[in-house]
Amino acid sequence: MGLDRLIEGIKRTNNPTVAGLDPKLDYIPEPIVRAAFEAHGETLEGAAAAILAYNKGLIDALCDVVPAVKPQAAYYEMYGWPGVRALSETIAYAREKGMFVITDGKRNDIGSTMEAYAAGHLGTTRVGEAETAAFGADALTVNGYLGTDGIRPLLDVCRRFDTGIFVLVKTSNPSSGELQDQPAGGQPVYRRMGSLCERWGEELPGKYGYSGVGAVVGATWPAQLGELRAALPHTFLLVPGYGAQGGGAADVAGAFDRDGLGAVINSSRGILCAWKKEGCAPEDYAGAARREALRMRDDILGAL
Amino acid sequence: MGLDRLIEGIKRTNNPTVAGLDPKLDYIPEPIVRAAFEAHGETLEGAAAAILAYNKGLIDALCDVVPAVKPQAAYYEMYGWPGVRALSETIAYAREKGMFVITDGKRNDIGSTMEAYAAGHLGTTRVGEAETAAFGADALTVNGYLGTDGIRPLLDVCRRFDTGIFVLVKTSNPSSGELQDQPAGGQPVYRRMGSLCERWGEELPGKYGYSGVGAVVGATWPAQLGELRAALPHTFLLVPGYGAQGGGAADVAGAFDRDGLGAVINSSRGILCAWKKEGCAPEDYAGAARREALRMRDDILGAL
User: Fold this and answer.
1) How confident is the model at residue B294 (pLDDT cuts 50, 70, 90)?
2) Closest Cβ opposite residue A113 in set B74, B132, B148
3) Which of A127, A132, A200 to mutate to test the interface with B (most CBs of B within 10 A)?
4) What is the ipTM of this complex?
5) What percentage of chain A exceeds 90 in pLDDT?
6) B117 at the A interface (CB within 8 A)?
7) Which residues of A fall within a CB distance of 8 Å from B146?
């Protein structure tokens, strides 16, 4: 239930990391972009074709060593509906290759509107007599600012489709404290949001001790990672901010439990742009991504 | 700048309301759905074609008496990329007809990711040498839980493209208080978020006294509407929850300033399903929507 399949993937690969698929055109080797533009012109369709080809290469190179991918919806939406089509094709391809897919959409709304997001991203949509998975991810990041009314529709869909959510708790950015650190009833807002995650998670118990309701906590806040790991024993942590945003392996070590579970660490730019940093041939971008993913795995496992 | 064009539309039509375009298939008259299914099958494409036809009929019927529409992204995303294409076509059609378009996406993220959302929804996306408006709305609803890092990229795009944002402050749902009413440093969280809106808005001053940074406050909280109207003199209010969610004209009166400006009231289901409530022929759904929109206008103007 919920995030169990992610945990099983982490155990299988012995790798508690997720590769963020944030495909800015600048990150994509020029030959891929050029081929896509030749086929589709310098259009949103052309950009989307480049993104999909790039993602498929990354997924092929990573799928046996990294358990999960996290496509960031914004980088697909910026290319309009063709970009969103590339998102759905990326999700389908990664799942075909056995990866757990976390759509990073930070969606939020209430009632029947949240039901629509839940159906679209984590379940199926009814059209006439047919039921179709519109996006079909395994998990979705969500924003809990609206409270339980915004989360309940997700829990129902997650139970039915064996999918999960990650709720923003303490985000990696410098100004996250403007709201999240405010003292609210004797504890910071982020702790209150964390407590809500534990409560919501009671409805989606998992077989490894973690519920289907995870929390997003940035690698840039090592003290809060440790605090939340201790305070939220059933809440799996999705940790962005490793690498490019400044978090290192020592910073994220506190996110894990004594069994080395309880967290998955995301790297986006580090993996996507490994070919630039390495200075290898652009054609070897996927190989460079794999090498960086293995280096990251060893870096993190070494700190546990 | 920012929301000035919305305010001008409200003055021109003498109507401080916005029609929410939340096109559930259940709301759409059966002949429209049947024609779309006959052309495209019971598929996501078929659903999207029905939605677009329905929306165009509504926009045609409303565009001279209602200044703005608010498509809710969730109801398009649930139909996958064809649904998202219908969203972009709906936005383009409403703008062609002179309406101000608020995409209700409640997007949120940080840094370059928020830049991607901002470009996609409120600006243009660069592809090779070309700049394309991926969605091209006039305003976007956003969630400020991540703080200034999540808002700054929007302000830059809004300034450049004469577009605006509405930040969730006090949402209409019953459980909004779980987080938003928590006392945070001497004031509830929603008041703190409101103060941030005033601060962010300083960068997007408007010519009618309201900035390009508005706030979402539910019609279900009349006391807070009045409180926030007084406390946030430069922040335009987008008020959902009229009608189906229980808010009436008297409840929203406090959202307006002494000139009858400062707020725009949304109705979705009331307008979309007017044909069902009226019991008119399904073919007259757009006429029923127009009659309900005029009734709502008169109801609200009568309470000011």
Assistant:
1) very high
2) B74
3) A127
4) 0.96
5) 95
6) yes
7) 168, 171, 173, 175-176, 179
Q: What is the pLDDT of residues A60-110, one digit of tens each?
A: 999 999 999 999 999 999 999 999 999 999 999 999 999 999 999 999 999
Output DSSP code: residue A24.
Answer: -
B179 touches chain A (CB under 8 A): yes
If contacts are CB pairs under 8 Å, which of residues 247-276 in chain A contact chain B? none
Residue A29 binned pLDDT confidence (cut-offs 50, 70, 90): very high
Out of A22, A129, A175, whose CB is closest to B42?
A129
Question: Residues of A with CB below 8 A from B168's CB?
Answer: 108, 145-146
Ramachandran region, residue B2 (left: φ > 0; alpha: ψ -120 to 50; beta: rest): left
For residue A46, what pLDDT is reported?
Answer: 98
pLDDT of residue A271: 96
pLDDT tens digits for range A285-298: 999 999 999 999 99
Q: Is B35 on the interface with A (CB under 8 A)?
A: no
**Is A106 labeled as catalytic in the residue annotation?**
yes
Q: Is the pLDDT of residue B286 over 90?
A: yes
pTM of the full structure: 0.97
